[in-house]
Design brief:
transmembrane helix, membrane, mainly alpha, transmembrane
C-alpha cells in the first residue's frame, strides 16, 4: 500500500474514533490519543517533505 493511502485511511479512522469519543464523553482518552496522532502525522508529513 502507498504511504499516502495509509495516511488518508488513518485520518478517516481517527475522525470516526474522535467522533465516538466525543459522543461517549471520553475527554481524557481524546486528550491523549488526538495529540499523539497529530504528532505522528506531523512527523510523517515532515519526513515526506524533506526527502
Amino acid at each position: 500500500m502507498s504511504p499516502s493511502f495509509v495516511a488518508i485511511f488513518s485520518s478517516v479512522l481517527m475522525v470516526i474514533a474522535a467522533a465516538m469519543m466525543i459522543g461517549q464523553r471520553q475527554w481524557t482518552m481524546l486528550a491523549i490519543v488526538l495529540p499523539l496522532w497529530l504528532v505522528v502525522l506531523g512527523i510523517w508529513w515532515y519526513r515526506r517533505q524533506t526527502r
